[in-house]
TrEMBL record:
Domain of life, per lineage: Bacteria
Ranges for domain Thiamine pyrophosphate enzyme N-terminal TPP-binding: 14-124
Protein name: 2-succinyl-5-enolpyruvyl-6-hydroxy-3-cyclohexene-1-carboxylate synthase
Any GO molecular function: 2-succinyl-5-enolpyruvyl-6-hydroxy-3-cyclohexene-1-carboxylic-acid synthase activity
Cofactor note: Binds 1 thiamine pyrophosphate per subunit.
Catalytic activity: isochorismate + 2-oxoglutarate + H(+) = 5-enolpyruvoyl-6-hydroxy-2-succinyl-cyclohex-3-ene-1-carboxylate + CO2
Sequence ranges assigned to domain Thiamine pyrophosphate enzyme TPP-binding in this UniProt record: 419-551
Alphabetical list of Pfam families matching this protein: TPP_enzyme_C (PF02775), TPP_enzyme_M_2 (PF16582), TPP_enzyme_N (PF02776)
Native source species: Aciduricibacillus chroicocephali
Gene: menD
Leader sequence segment: none
Assembly description: Homodimer.
Amino acid sequence: MSWTEDLTRYVCNFVDELAAGGLAHAVISPGSRSTPLALAFAEHKEIREWVIVDERSAAFFALGIAKASRKPVVLICTSGTAAANYYPAIVEAFYSHVPLVVLTADRPHELRDVDAPQAIDQIHLYGQYAKWFHEMALPESSPRMLSYARSKAARSLHEAEIQSGPVHLNFPFREPLVLDFSLENVWGERLGNGFYPLMSGNRTLNPGQFFAMEDCLKGKRKGLLVAGLGIDLEASKALLKLARNWAMPILADPLSQLRQLGDEESGKYIIDSYDALFKTEEVRTSLRPDYVIRFGAMPVSKTYRFYLEQHADIPQFIVSDETHFREPTGNRTSFIHSDCITFAEEAGKLKNLVAESGWIEKWFEVNSLAREVLSSSANEFMEGTAVLELAEQLPSNSILFSGNSMAIRDLDTFMFAAKRDLSVMANRGANGIDGVISSACGAAASGKRTTLLIGDLSFYHDMNGLFAAKHYKLPLTIVLVNNSGGGIFSFLPQANDKRHFEALFGTPVDLDFGKAAELYGADYVLARNGEEFSQALASSYDREGLSIIEVQTDRQENEQWHRDKWSKVNERISKKLFGE
């Protein structure tokens, strides 16, 4: 049997087993050594291939597809530094629990550590950030080795899904690298419903553990629920039902999907302005709970962390079906490893945990006051008012993708709970500004209209990501908030260093982003006021392809505007709570 036949059958059986396991998308970074993998994925009729030239962009693009589909996505690249360029997205996938299957091509063993070109040490290249690693055997087409190839393909999907993160397989290939698809039965034989059929159930507590929890909280009538990142729409519905059963407030992080359920009936339970409420120690003290039950990751809000640190002595429970210690405050915490929906349904039967009269009403009143202040724009056009307008216009059945730094914080502050058919996403694992455009493009690959809210530095950092939007005509609207640099640093102590602030932290790039829009064939609008912004948004949603709407603001004015809002919130809340 020839080398080409060995290579072809080995790789094709591997790829076909991925398809048998439900893999639908493969993102390919072009290169020579990865030719066998690239050809096999491109040829397989059940897998959609996406070709992204820039490896860093490709990896974040795959991350975006996986976020939107909630299924593993394959990444393929050649040997050498191509694989190293995947590293930032793999770190993000690790911390945000997104399943990726990374396939790196490599030189064969005889060409390693001998100064051969494009040969680096790729064994465990991603270290702890790959939740499973395997060095694939050299290709053979014996029945045993084809079975081996299928077993590793099946396992890679299971590991990525079960561990909710990236896995890495390294493929050493000898030349020649081209496959022969004319071979009979080139894709091999599938075994029933896959090589490793997997059955799994929901993790939950037993009845005795629920009663023990109830007994632990006996007499504590001011509970607080918190929904963080990772709570999808169905889990959000279950948590809202739990909040109703217990007459208890639920703090809703903007990435929890809970804010999309804010109709008139549920509005009294969903607290969406807690970041503004928690700005002062006095208010945090007045809103002290008896215990906290959090679902999912830590919320975006920094003041929520202050709130927890101030009340470090209260019982805290974190419910997650993943065995991760997501508790950055260091408070004493009980971890409950359970499916959130199952837990909420069973916990709702514990009638002794219903909150005392007046507790939910207190939260609803102060939250309403904060919303009233934050939503009053007085005809101003600022970064926060742009988010208010954006929240009003987002199309049904669409995706909102947020950048980090100021973008996600303005979303947290100014996107209030309302009834929306919307998915909200962000790269909040490592919280970096890299790869955000590419991730949003990956989300838009779902076919749903996607809106990206992003700052100018993050936009500049990933302009290569616009290639995917142009090349694949993705339905993407980008709201580019240009405050000429790192706006979030204006709110940090570094801003007091007038000598070095602009050079080291403000870092204005002074670019004409209209030229970038022209380069990538985007429709571009510079919105100078609220009316122009509103019209540009509406037009972008009626148009196919890529639209970029730039909003230019002043960092110092923006900082002062935010501080004025927070001060007014504090005045209104203090008057309500303390009669001041």
